[in-house]
Design a protein that fits this description.
single chain, 302 residues, alpha+beta, five-stranded mixed beta sheet, 12 helices, 7 strands, 53% helix, globular
């Protein structure tokens, strides 16, 4: 109804609302929109995201370089003040964008242009659109993870960059039940697309490749490491293992937080150590479950 209202207000030349009749999934809807476009650059924005006034202007600057096929915007958390969970997500978003994406962008190898706010060169995605739209993984059609998947298709032959000055905000889950369901879906997408990217990322810059493979292997082994620490602490009656591990995780989170406080003036930087502990105790166990349920393509949050 909102899209139809906007189309009526602005006119169909500026806003064209498209209906598929039934819910065919996000990829089908995005594909229909792409086929209706004529301009060189296509921008995707989630329904719960909001752009700053000059965000598009900043984002499209990157496409001056002919090798750039996609660009990720810089998305912050709109409801960060709601509770502890949203504050932890706020600093986690900052780490993802202002540390990891900044580093990846230096080598033109950003591995995910998030659906909340990203842009693609039409020339880069039109040829691969059928394969992306009908992507299969282990005998199951891929539904979620459309953003990371589309980035993978583009990254094979194009540079993918991050624009720190193109800012937007998005609404994140403010309840733990919904947050954990979202994270499980994201982990399935990360496992699937990580294995896909692993087959070609070695062709990129050696530093970018090494960083990618490290970030792929360590989280996968995380549950084994934590499980081993807990096992030895209990059965050897030596809790120094557990204390040392928690201390190391806390310090690492603190380093990320302090860096973002000094460089980006992040308000909730001190929540990063707390999120690191929260992730280690609760969320890390989602990884083996996500691997087991990789073929369950339900979004889980509807």
């Amino acid at each position: 109804e909102e899209m139809q209202r906007a189309s009526k207000f602005f006119g169909e030349k500026l806003v064209k609302a498209v209906t598929l009749g039934v819910n065919k999934g996000k990829r089908e809807a995005m594909s229909e929109g792409i086929y209706l476009t004529k301009n060189e650059i296509i921008v995707f924005v989630d329904s719960d995201s909001f752009l700053e006034k000059n965000a598009l202007k900043q984002l499209v600057h990157h496409f001056v370089h002919e090798k750039v096929g996609a660009v990720s915007g810089n998305t912050k958390v709109a409801n960060r003040k709601t509770n502890i969970l949203t504050k932890m997500q706020s600093i986690r978003y900052a780490v993802s964008y202002d540390i990891f994406k900044v580093c990846e962008s230096h080598f033109g190898a950003v591995t995910c242009c998030p659906g909340c706010f990203s842009a693609y060169r039409r020339e880069a995605i039109l040829p691969i659109l059928p394969n992306w739209r009908n992507q299969m993984f282990m005998g199951t059609r891929s539904t979620f993870g459309d953003d990371r998947s589309l980035t993978n298709f583009v990254l094979r032959n194009w540079d993918v960059e991050y624009c720190q000055s193109a800012k937007a905000e998005t609404i994140v889950p403010d309840k733990y039940s919904k947050f954990l369901k979202q994270q499980l879906r994201w982990k399935k997408s990360w496992i699937r697309e990580g294995s896909v990217a692993a087959s070609f990322i070695w062709k990129k810059h050696p530093i970018a490749s090494l960083s990618f493979y490290t970030n792929l292997i360590l989280p996968t082994l995380g549950p084994i490491v934590v499980g081993t620490v807990i096992y030895r602490s209990i059965f050897e009656l030596n809790f120094n293992y557990l204390f040392a591990f928690i201390f190391g995780v806390t310090v690492l989170g603190l380093l990320f937080g302090v860096f973002l406080s000094l460089m980006q003036r992040e308000k909730y930087w001190y929540y990063m150590p707390l999120f690191s502990i929260f992730y280690t105790i609760f969320m890390i166990w989602q990884m083996p479950y996500a691997i087991i349920r990789i073929n369950d393509t339900r979004w889980g949050t509807r």
